[in-house]
Amino acid sequence: MHTQEEVIKAYESYYNMVWKICLTQLGNEHDAYDAVQETFMRFIKCAKKLCGEEHKKAWLIRTAVNYCRDVMKSSWKKKRADMEGVCLGAVIADGSLGDESREVINALMELPDKYRIILYLYYYEGYTLKEISHILKVNDSTLRSRFAAAKKMMKEYLENE
User: Fold this and answer.
1) pLDDT-derived band of residue 74, with 50, 70 and 90 as boundaries?
2) How far is the C-alpha of 43 from the C-alpha of 21, rounded, in Å?
3) 77-109 pLDDT, tens per residue?
4) Which alpha helices (DSSP H) does 27-112 contain, by range?
5) Are 70 and 126 contained in the same domain?
6) Does 132 share its domain with 56?
7) Of the candidates 52, 68, 86, which is a domain's last residue?
8) How confident is the model at residue 159 (pLDDT cuts 50, 70, 90)?
9) Are 68 and 108 within one domain?
10) Any residues with CB less than 8 A from the CB of 113 and at least 6 apart, and which?
């Protein structure tokens, strides 16, 4: 178990990042808040000590992504209609996006999640492909192929818009 100080520090440091990842994965603000809460609850209950800030950050990303994937696979999520229609562009960039950036965010949201998370971590969080491969526990060559495919899909989507 982590100390109260460790939990507070992790929450203050990584809340926005985890929330944006969950929002990117789930596409719904309310589900994202639930996923963030669950991610930090799992952090609180985590028995192993995470050595270093980068390890803690990677653990939170991996846990958030796994939880979001579980939510997306659930029968409840598949049967539920998304009534909110949240504009992710404004939320992700804290309301400071121009029309061009909104198009990019909308294109990102059209990608399947296995591609979307790679682009998000690479472009928005600044991770290298090697780091993303380690965080997502995906083979390096597989990740590079997905990254190339994701960039190609984004380009095609943006050209068609």
Assistant:
1) confident
2) 16
3) 555 544 333 444 444 545 444 555 677 777 888
4) 29-45, 53-73, 75-79, 88-92, 99-110
5) no
6) no
7) 86
8) confident
9) no
10) 25, 68, 69, 72
Q: How many domains does the chain have?
A: 2
37 exposed, middle or buried (CB, 10 Å; 0-12, 13-18, 19+)?
middle
Does one domain contain both 22 and 55? yes
22 and 98, same structural domain? Answer: no
Distance CA 18, CA 30 (A): 14
> How many residues are there in the chain?
161
Q: Say yes or no: 74 and 7 in one domain.
A: yes
Distances in Å between the Cα of 71 and the Cα atoms of 4, 65, 75, 86, 100 are: 28, 10, 9, 18, 30
**105-129 average pLDDT score:** 88
Q: What CATH number should be reported for the domain holding residue 19?
A: 1.10.1740
CA 32 → CA 17, 67, 126, distances in Å? 11, 10, 21
pLDDT tens for each residue of 18-60: 999 998 888 888 899 999 999 999 999 887 777 888 999 999 9
- The whole domain housing 58 covers 1-86
